Amino acid sequence: MAEIGSDLQKAITLLQSDELVGIPTETVYGLAGNALSTKAIAKIFEAKDRPFFDPLIVHVSDIEAAYQYVTHIPEKALLLAKHFWPGPLTLLLPKLPIIPDLATSGLNTVGIRCPQHPLTTQLLKLLPFPLAAPSANPFGYISPTNPQHVNQQLGNRIRYILDGGECNVGLESTIIGFEQDQPIAYRLGGLSIEQLEAIVGTLEIQLNASSNPAAPGQLKSHYAPKKKLIIGNLEKLAATHAHQRIGVLAFNRAVSGVDMHRQRILSPTSDLSDAAQHLFAYLRELDQLSVDIIIAEEVPPVGLGRAINDRLKRASAQ
Length: 318
Ligand code: TXA
Ligand code: MG
Fold this sequence. Notes:
The chain has 318 residues and is of the alpha/beta class. The chain folds into two domains: 3-205, Alpha-Beta Complex (DHBP synthase), CATH 3.90.870; 228-316, Threonylcarbamoyl-AMP synthase, C-terminal domain (Rossmann fold, 3-Layer(aba) Sandwich). The chain has eleven helices and 15 strands. A hairpin with a 6-residue loop joins strand 2 (21-23) and strand 3. The longest helix has 17 residues, at 272-288. Bound molecules: threonylcarbamoyladenylate and magnesium ion.
């Protein structure tokens, strides 16, 4: 198992020798390595069993740092960065050669994000290089939202996890790219489309690019538990599957007739931020219970609700 602690110097020493460290962000925990080192980047892909065609996000401490790794920042990208960084927003920007092709899977853009977590901000400020960091889970599984999640699955592959507590957003960053300087959303996430549109106007949304190997976060099946997950009306599903042991992931109220130990309620007060924050941890807990299947319901499709529903759908895809 990896050590969990808050020793920044230890994290720095490991990262400087091309080792990987689990790091907290406001979205999910990342599996971080030196983004300028092909050796560290290769270790990230290996530790996650991640296919090399799935590019990594590069984390920086602020906008000024981002300029060191991209040819330029389009006007609308800069506007978004100024509004939402640090925060759950990744911008796809034209990369400079200093970012290894291995990090971007040969693409000419690099995903850049300035995360909002005091420990990681400090870490990034102290390091002489940016951090490549995918979510710290085996490829295709549910993303980790606390250090124990990271340790459960990658603890035998890394030595240290920085303890930043529970992630307070709980969904991965929203990914925005640009075509002729027009913003396009490629992944729904912790920053809602409504918040983005308030700044740059109507956004084109291109999800489900399952034929596009450059963006596996958009693959149909991703973020998935090992148990079969079915989405629909909970009462009906509970009745249909009454002969099985069911785990329930409900939005705001329990389902009658199912043992409460096997039910998780995302937000009893119907708060979508709370629901987002709990989503992955609850899915994990249900996956680890002795249940045959998990049933879940969609949440209202507004704000973070759209990203929550997107993750539920991908988690349920076979
Ligand atoms: O919130 C987050 O973004 C977290 C934390 C750790 O920062 N990271 C994260 O990374 O979710 P990961 O690797 O699990 O997901 C990154 C997604 C992948 O689906 C990848 O295909 C896409 O970002 N991506 C990265 N760079 C890209 C690029 N240049 N073009 C298109 N897609 C890109
Ligand atoms: Mg991921």
